[in-house]
Amino acid sequence: VSEADPRELARLATGGDLEAFELLIRRFERRVYGFSYHQLRDYSEAQDLTQEIFVRLYQQLDRFDSSRPFEPWFWRLAANAAINYRRRRVPIPKEIDTEDAGPPPPDADLLEALGELDPAYRLPLLLHYYADLPMEHVAAALRLSVNGAKSRLHRARALLRRLLEETR
Amino acid sequence: MMRCAEVRRRLEELADGDLDRATQAAVRAHLRSCQACSAAYEDAVSLPARLRALASPALPPSLIPTVMSRLASGRRLGRLGWVLLAPEALLVGFIIWYVSGPAGLADLAASTAGDVSRYLAWTSGLSDAPVTAATDGLLTLALAVLTLVSAAHLAVLARSVPRRPA
After folding, report:
1. Is the Cβ pair A130, B51 closer than 8 Å?
2. Is B13 exposed, middle or buried (0-12, 13-18, 19+ CB in 10 A)?
3. Do the Cβ atoms of B81 and B54 come closer than 8 Å?
4. How many CB pairs under 8 A join A and B?
5. Using CB atoms, which residue from B51, B54, B64 is nearest to A25?
6. What is the pTM of this model?
7. Residue B150 Cα distances to A71, B86, B124, angstroms
8. What's the gap in Å between the CA of A34 and the closest CA on chain B?
9. CB B165 to CB A88 under 8 A?
10. Using the beta-carbon criterion (under 8 Å), do B40 and A45 form an inter-chain contact?
11. Using the beta-carbon criterion (under 8 Å), do A37 and B68 form an inter-chain contact?
């Protein structure tokens, strides 16, 4: 069942099957936690946000249309949860949270620049490159046309490139 | 010949192969003659791979158990919420039966007013202690219990709302 289609797991979980729901979140936990961390740059808050995303997923499963792909719907929910979470929280720490993080992360410059980027641009980058969503799914998650999402992504990469140039 | 600023705006589209042939040729011609733009293009090309290779932080082991326990406790609280509806319904049923429609409500208002005036006369020493009907005592008790059960029910519902960080 662990390799089951997320749609099938979602359908079982909607009927109250918590084991199916656990399998569903196991499939996404790494990407969601990483996505949350790269949004917030704080391990404790990333854990809070990840939990909130999964609790919200469980509460909203009955709104999922199982005739459509699961991932764009799920990542839209995750993106909205991240946006709401950021609105409620105190401003992002300027320094990357390295508490309990072990050795410094590879490509720290990129992480730093990503943290400086406007969330409206950071989100499509994380969805496409980090969460590995195809462009059509990114567009659906952000409620943009595919061309609109592509231009947002180009703009985001250009801004990120400039931020990286400034840090050299 | 394109200017640097215009070329820099097109680098991501060039890297993704999204430029039309003429623009692509113009941008490439500029890159051949401009070292700074050429270096920026190298950055533009390497950025997607760097983003894909972003390190994933180690997962906290408590992540899934915490989520599952929040869901399980939410379900328990949800069930308790329904159980608490039973005594509430029973108490409301009793009160409705006692009041028994607008006529009963008018009778209740009149008898309450009479009781109040008799208690006032008693406290002023003008008459003996009034005798209250047993059912009036039951109604008062039912209202008090209903208030308590409703408060407990609201507390359960408030706890079942997902916690949000401060």
Report:
1. yes
2. buried
3. no
4. 105
5. B64
6. 0.68
7. 41, 11, 37
8. 5
9. yes
10. no
11. no
| Length reported for chain A | 168
CA distances from B61 to A19, A30, A47, B68 (A): 18, 11, 11, 13
Token reading at B89: 């319904």
Q: Does A44 touch chain B (CB under 8 A)?
A: no
Residue with the two structure tokens 């308790």:
B80
Whether A157 and chain B come into contact, CB under 8 Å, resolves to yes
pLDDT confidence of A129, banded at 50, 70, 90?
very high
The string of pLDDT tens digits covering residues A38-96 is: 888 888 999 999 999 999 999 899 889 888 889 889 998 998 898 889 888 766 555 55
Distances in whole angstroms, Cα of residue B143 to Cα of each of A20, A76, B102, B108, B118: 44, 47, 18, 14, 22
ipTM associated with this complex: 0.79
Give the pLDDT confidence score for residue B2 in this predicted structure: 86
If one compares A8 and B87, the residue with the highest pLDDT of the two is A8
Q: What DSSP state is assigned to residue B20?
A: -
Mutate to test the interface with B, among A28, A40, A45, A50 (most CBs of B within 10 A): A50
Residue B71 CB contacts under 8 Å (≥ 6 apart), including other chains: A18, A21, A55, A58
Among A54-58, B78-82, B126-130, which range has the highest average pLDDT?
A: A54-58
Q: Any chain B CB within 8 A of the CB of A106?
A: yes
pLDDT digits (tens, 9 = 90+) for A82-110: 888 988 876 655 555 555 555 556 678 89
